[in-house]
Write a structure and sequence with these properties.
Helix content: 10-25%
Strand content: 35-45%
Strand order of the largest sheet: 32-33-34-35-36-37
CATH class of one domain: Mainly Beta
Oligomer: single chain
CATH architecture of one domain: 7 Propeller
Number of strands: 59
Structural class: alpha+beta
Largest sheet: 6 strands, antiparallel
Shape: globular
CATH topology of one domain: Methylamine Dehydrogenase, Chain H
Distance between the termini: 79 Å
């Protein structure tokens, strides 16, 4: 009989505030919430978290079960604040509704990670840049990719929509902006790339109209566009900021002109600013309402820059001219060129601002020192907030969010120019996560509490609610464990100290300098009365738990206190990396740096077995519940299973693709499964093994970094893991059964699907490789399956059409002939016609995947598809979808269709039926629009009354009587 196993699945993750893979987005506070200061949308590996910055509360968690890639970019819609675009590492883009935490639409067009996302002003278009050097414009209404822009030679590092509004001349000679009701234009797109280029794209003609070298000292890593579209700033390596002036008036004029001048230049280099830091600049963000912008790199500093007003620039220029004049006067005696200097000053004052240096227009306001390396920053803009300060949100690489209050420059002249304004750290979200990698995990005896230890902190978690109960300050923790009773946690540190923490009172009970080297492992004795610690000082020490009565300071009372008392010491030949008691307390296994494992008798500390076979040091080990097997894992990527009776190696398994860090047996055999164990590795995976059959049962993927720690519950119901990605994940055992053969087949299918989609994308748009514009398409497993469903529906439909047509020919001569035997699928669906079946299959395909699914069809299937399109047009079935499919197929297979005589004849019939159907729909829409206008007029007549004054002067100058309208509010 084939053995089955119970499946483990990912159930929850916690311990992560924000990951350093994406930018952060600030959203204004909810009007219904009085206590909230605002919300923050951040990336958390493959999830998106929605935090309340003031309460430190997680409001919602956005996760797509079908996507395991990390979030790399987030953008908020400018028209609908509840809509967010999220880019992922696999090149996919998902639109999320923050109110219901569900996906609206899914786009696939990029082959690499998304680096930038930007919405246009109307919120109906989305631009995305990627590491694959392409920029794609997405139509959010039609849910399709419009086109792909190619021009950069390296990853896209910044993009912004530039949509200038045309200026018109009013009757009085003044200028006014065109209203929103004017005819819309496609606008422009500004992009920067790692290839040090800045490009301006005309989205109407879909080509690049201007290219400049953004940074002369290397790559360009950031782009910031001013809110008034008057200019932009690019940044790269060594702290250089280049300022560009953008001629929006000329851009607006070029939209109306047919012939643009060949030497037109819309971007102009204004100069270079130098940051305080010399690291690579990663982000530039302008304040939407104030003349400030924020610049930061990868260090622990965020620089706030201020744009000076016109009066300040004039004052600065006048001061410089006065100094220059004084120097010239001193140099020439103050007599020779006095009149010439005055004339020069008058000439410079006329256009001084336009010729002013960028250092006169931009000045550094202050530098915010953060508690961790900065990953992203965003302005926190709330309506009704204080006008004297700005708020800045900063996300750091050490898993925390910070909100700073930035004071504005005082308008009064009392403060000295050299005074640096002081900022304050107002709010932070830091308790729900560690600042450094979690190096050890330990579960309490009832599996309700979880202890996680890292460099500088120890946290106690409630496993069921995933909330942090306690936080302790500790040293560089390498190992930890709960003592019997689950009231005390013991921690071993890198400095050789053992620290005892009381969970209930949240205090440090005792700190013992136990070893001269790092304590790599500690283990509580199965009887709960003592423990052993293993260190890099080549010794293992045994400690007894003792209750000592200590005097309370200032009183005569005493209080009991737990202390550690050393009882024995075991000297070995090399550093101890791991040690483990057998469950029957008979043996103590010690793993040494010389790649061997020595097993000692616990009572006499005499050597029992010497296990050797690993080529690199053993990093961790565990002993089975019945004390019969010991499993060891090593940096040589192998797992070895040994018998504790004779010390023979039962099996050596090549288990992972990198160093194996942890291994742990399931501590019981309640289900009679035998010896099962888990292993974790630097290859970011957890594997579930059968230690009796030496087979891999299951592979658990989900972490995005090396997995440092692992803990298995005492009943085997769940597994907890902690990784370099700062997340703690819980994997629960389900009732679903899995079989080894099915798991191997599933792995092969996943590998095949991955290679299949990769092979289809190897030569996309071969004819457009050298062009600037290409189709925004990408084949995925979903589109391949959709294309196969269309192909199958077309074949079934054509077969049914032939059967029905033959039956109708026979029926013309013999009216009593029996109906034909149709395919059972049509009968199961309610005896529908072939065209209804094909239409239902097409309608079930997502709009964003329809074009890619149609590309899967070979040209031999196009005549069959056109046959059904003709039937759709004849019966007016879903005309928008019919026209969309028809026009896309005509554009894709234009050359083959033109060269085919049968296809041209078929197109004549489609044209006739399509025009008739579209004319009918046009008439219906016109009739409906006219009816709506009539209804609107009736509503207006009932709600608006016209009133004319009796004493109205009907002079010749007022031939047309003017009326005032009054609205009756019911």
């Amino acid at each position: 009989m084939v053995k089955s196993y119970l499946k483990y699945e990912h159930s929850k993750s916690f311990g992560l505030v924000t990951s350093g893979t994406s930018n952060v987005v600030w959203t204004s506070k909810d009007k219904s919430s009085i206590t909230s200061a605002g919300q923050v949308v951040v990336a958390a590996n493959e999830e998106v978290l929605y935090w309340d910055i003031k309460k430190g509360e997680l409001l919602s968690r956005w996760r797509d079960e079908n996507c395991l890639s990390q979030v790399t970019a987030i953008a908020q819609s400018k028209t609908d604040p509840d809509v967010f675009a999220v880019g992922y590492e696999d090149g996919s883009i998902r639109l999320w509704d923050s109110k219901i935490a569900t996906t609206i639409v899914n786009f696939n067009g990029h082959r690499s990670a998304i680096t930038n996302l930007a919405f246009d002003r109307s919120g109906v278009r989305l631009a995305s840049g990627s590491k694959d050097t392409d920029v794609i414009i997405w139509d959010l209404v039609a849910e399709v990719g419009q086109f792909k822009l190619r021009g950069h030679k390296d990853q896209v590092t910044g993009l912004q929509f530039v949509e200038p509004q045309e200026e018109v001349i009013e009757e009085d000679g003044g200028q006014a902006m065109v209203l929103d009701g004017a005819a819309p234009s496609e606008g422009f797109l500004l992009t920067t790339g790692k290839d040090s280029l800045i490009k301006l794209w005309d989205l109407g003609t879909r080509h690049c109209i201007e290219t400049h070298i953004a940074q002369t000292n290397g790559e360009c890593w950031a782009l910031g566009l001013s809110p008034d579209l008057s200019g932009c700033i690019t940044a790269g390596n060594s702290g250089e900021l280049k300022v560009w002036a953008l001629d929006t008036a000329a851009l607006a004029e070029s939209q109306r002109r047919v012939d643009a001048p060949p030497n037109a230049q819309y971007l102009r280099d204004r100069g270079t600013l130098l940051r305080h830091g010399k690291d690579r600049t990663t982000e530039i963000t302008f304040h939407p309402h104030k003349d400030y912008f924020v610049v930061h790199g990868s260090e622990k500093a965020v620089e706030i820059w201020r744009i000076r007003s016109e009066a300040e620039i004039k004052k600065s220029l006048a001061r410089k001219k006065r100094r220059r004049k004084e120097k010239l006067a001193q140099k020439k005696g103050g007599q020779a060129n006095g009149d010439g200097d005055a004339n020069e000053e008058e000439e410079d004052q006329d256009d001084g601002i336009s010729r002013a240096d960028v250092t006169d227009a931009f000045t550094q306001h202050l530098i915010v020192r953060t508690s961790g390396k900065t990953r992203s920053a965003d302005w926190a803009v709330n309506h009704g907030s204080s006008s004297k300060t700005l708020q800045l949100l900063v996300a750091t690489n050490n898993n925390q969010l910070e909100l700073y209050n930035i004071p504005l420059k005082e308008k009064s002249g009392k403060s000295k120019q050299d005074d640096v304004p002081d900022y304050t750290r107002a709010l932070a979200v830091e308790l729900p996560g560690h600042r450094a990698d979690i190096r050890s995990l330990a579960l309490s005896s009832d599996d309700r509490m979880l202890a996680s230890a890292s460099n500088g902190s120890l946290k106690i978690w409630n496993v069921r609610t995933q909330t942090c109960i306690r936080t302790f300050d500790c040293g560089y923790a390498l190992c930890c464990a709960f003592l019997p009773g689950d009231k005390v946690v013991v921690v071993g540190t890198k400095s050789g100290e053992i620290e005892l923490f009381d969970v209930a009172s949240a205090v440090l009970l005792d700190s013992v300098t136990a070893h001269e080297g790092a304590i790599w492992s500690l283990q509580v004795h199965p009887d709960g009365r003592s423990m052993v610690s293993g260190s890099a000082d080549k010794s293992a020490k045994f400690w007894n738990f003792k209750i000592v009565q200590e005097e309370v300071l200032g009183t005569t009372r005493t209080t009991p206190k737990l202390k550690l008392a050393q009882s024995r010491k075991l000297e070995v030949s090399d550093d101890i990396l791991s040690l483990k008691f057998s469950p029957d307390a008979k043996y103590l296994a010690v793993a040494l740096l010389d790649s061997t494992v020595k097993v000692f008798f616990t009572d006499s500390l005499k050597l029992y077995l010497n296990l050797y076979g690993h080529k690199l040091p053993v990093l961790n080990m565990d002993i089975s519940y019945d004390s019969k097997l010991i499993v060891t894992c090593s940096a040589d990527k192998n797992i070895r299973i040994w018998g504790l009776d004779f010390g023979d190696c039962h099996k050596a398994l090549f288990a992972h693709q990198d160093s194996i860090l942890q291994v742990a047996f399931v501590p019981n055999n309640h289900n009679g499964n035998g010896h099962h164990f888990f292993s974790t590795s630097k290859d970011r995976s957890i594997k579930y093994w059968d230690g009796d059959k030496f087979e891999q049962i299951q592979r658990l993927d989900g972490h995005h970094g090396e997995i440092w720690a692992l803990a298995v519950s005492h009943n085997g119901g769940f597994v907890v893991s902690a990784s370099h990605d700062k997340s703690i994940r819980v994997w629960e055992e389900t009732d679903e059964q899995i079989f080894l053969e099915e798991e191997r087949e599933k792995e092969l299918e996943e590998l095949y699907e991955k290679t299949l989609t990769t092979s289809l994308e190897q030569d996309p748009d071969a004819e457009d490789q050298d062009g600037e514009v290409a189709a925004a398409s990408k084949q995925t497993t979903e589109t391949l399956m959709a294309g196969e469903r269309i192909q199958e529906a077309l074949e079934l439909g054509m077969e049914d059409l032939h059967v029905v047509r033959g039956w109708e020919e026979v029926k013309a001569n013999n009216p009593n002939v029996a109906p034909p035997q149709r395919n059972p699928i049509f009968l199961a669906l309610g005896n529908i016609s072939a065209e209804e079946h094909v239409m239902s299959v097409l309608q079930k395909i997502k709009a964003s995947a329809l074009q890619d699914a149609l590309l899967v069809l070979p040209f031999a299937s196009v005549p069959m598809l056109f046959t059904f399109l003709n039937l759709f047009a004849l019966r007016s079935m879903n005309m928008p979808l019919t026209c969309r499919i028809l026009f896309f197929m005509l554009k894709t297979h234009h050359q083959q269709i033109v060269a085919s005589r049968t296809m041209r004849a078929m197109l004549d019939g489609i044209k006739l039926n399509l025009r008739r159907a579209l004319r009918r729909q046009k008439d219906e829409m016109g009739y409906n629009i006219a009816a709506l206008k009539v209804v609107g007029m009736q509503i207006r007549d009932k709600s608006v009354k016209d009133y004319v004054d009796e004493n109205w002067d009907d002079g010749p100058e007022s031939q047309g009587t003017k009326k005032r309208a009054f609205l009756h509010v019911s």
